[in-house]
Fold each of these.
Amino acid sequence: MKPTNTTPFPDYKMSEDLDLYRLDDLISAEDKELRRRVRHWVQTRFVPQINRCWNAGTFPLELLPEIAELGVFGANIQGYGCAGWSPLRYGLALAELERGDTGLRTFVSVQGALAMTAIHLFGSEEQKQRWLPEMARARKLGCFGLTEPLHGSNPGGMETRAVKTSDGYELTGAKMWIGGGTLADVAVVWAKVDGEPGLDPNSPAAVRGFLVERGTPGFSASVIEGKYSLRIGITCRLEFNHCKVPHNALLPGTKGLKSPLQCLNHARYGIAWGAIGAAKACLEEARDYALRRIQFGKPLASFQMVQSKLARMATEITNAQLMAFRLAQLKEAGQATFVQISMAKRNNVAMALQVARIAREILGGVGILDEHVSFRHMCNLESVYTYEGTDDMHLLILGEYLTGLSAFV
């Protein structure tokens, strides 16, 4: 019998995971349970506070112990009180965090994928033992100072200097767009070292990482005000005015600009997953609204143009899921390259931003109200589209790989 417009297809189902290609069949029961637990916490503990925090431009710091209990801080690190999750489990968790808000996922990324990863990869055993267990429990917070006011896409041009002295180093310079800078107990700060024999202090090879603790004389942090995006993220400027740190503040394993870029690879991997969570939230909201909203005597979801938009959104989310899932497999095998990570970050963020824009369009006038999530996700994703490598920079990374020719300069 030919189906009518009121007859559902026998196998019709859109799960909250939007798993059109049945990737869940490849996920363990333990990973599914972890995802369920994170999703439940986000929906019951975090989401009810999001509008208050968004309007105030604050992060719900009182929830930090609960976030730590989820195991997400430094979750990809083995030992030191960290969860030691697989790349897939880590990605699934970050998608659920960003389903709530990009600011939540960003907070976790800064703490874990950037600050904790830098200490884990390049720190001494003493530094690891001192900081990582406390950071995993959110009893200590960290930030990652790489970007500068005049050097965003070109971190190799950094002007922050660390002059070697008889009793340590003296840091001078400034960092910009630093997540959690005013909250951090320790800042991972990247600077070019001046005073090491045989090393050109102007070269990217001179870049080293330093642990600068809160309260160190000459170190200050201030919040950047007036953001329309990433409102619950505490974004800061760091300044170093002849800031003196001891010899043991140096992360001994850091060797040039490639060191902070290794940390960015970990963070970009998480972003590729997180963006999927934001996109899912927008699609689900748009679809549910279109099914409820009656225009011209029938649901918006019954119109061809609306169905076309929903179908395209679902297709692009599925494409992003497939890319992220395969990237997780490569990362688990130790085979993921920075080009693959760059491609996934760029593709999935651009996808999520477009999905958010279309979802807001389907919602119509009410889409600008804070009772709906799509406009907030759209604003947040404008930041993710720019940070940790702009869309253009990631295209050029891929372009250089394809041609063998650098187009950065």
Amino acid sequence: MDTLSFKTISANKATVQKEWVLVDATDMVLGRMATQVARLLRGKHKPNFTPHVDCGDNVIIINASKVKLTGNKWDGRTYYTYSLYPGGQRAFSPAQLMAKSPEKLVEKVVKGMLPKNILGTSLLKNLHVYAGAEYPHEAQQPKLIDLNLLK
């Protein structure tokens, strides 16, 4: 066996094949759904996964307002933002964020599961979250995927 003939194939922007995936978040636990969505965005489910390349899919999440949290997380968990000005630290719970904007709650949780670098920022642009069942991406013909069936 000639071991020099084996080549490691790395994906690049020209060779990667991106798909559009639709996820219905109705009655799904937020953290468990977000881990699967982050995996789809990153492209770790594909055989040609390359860590430094955006080889993931475009993900559309609908019904973000119907997502669930287990335990006492609606009021017990606290998210912080800081504007870098004195007195600019703000704290809010998931319940407050859900009342204001369910899309931002889902985006914040998925963002926390992506790499904290330029690649993570570009991967987050492939995520589209909508509070209701309506979405403007019918032209891309996304395929509906059940996250419970993914491994």
Amino acid sequence: MTESEVFEYALIRVVPRVERGEAVNVGVIVYAQAYRYLCARIELDEPRLLAVDPAADLDAVRAGLTAFEKACTEGPLAGRPLGERFRWLTAPRSTIVQPGPVHSGLTADPAAELAHLFDTLVRVSR
């Protein structure tokens, strides 16, 4: 049996009109130092976002989400330690793509935790 270790996660939200503060959960980022794991899972539900803001710039949102997801493994942060990348990605910001607060827990399988959090906190039951 694998031992549980601490992991941290944050929701990734799209806030199409920052001044209104309305957000749509579009992803989760998970970091587990003991497992050397950092991964984000993102899925944009465009109809849901457009219900919040019919004038949302979908191209800009998609570009921001792609950049966020890739920053886990590519780009200028790629050479930095995983924990440093996670802290940078989860730092508060006032852009269209924003991380939520960081939460923690215990897991023996961070990839399974990412899938569970994504299904629970991002996907909408249909």
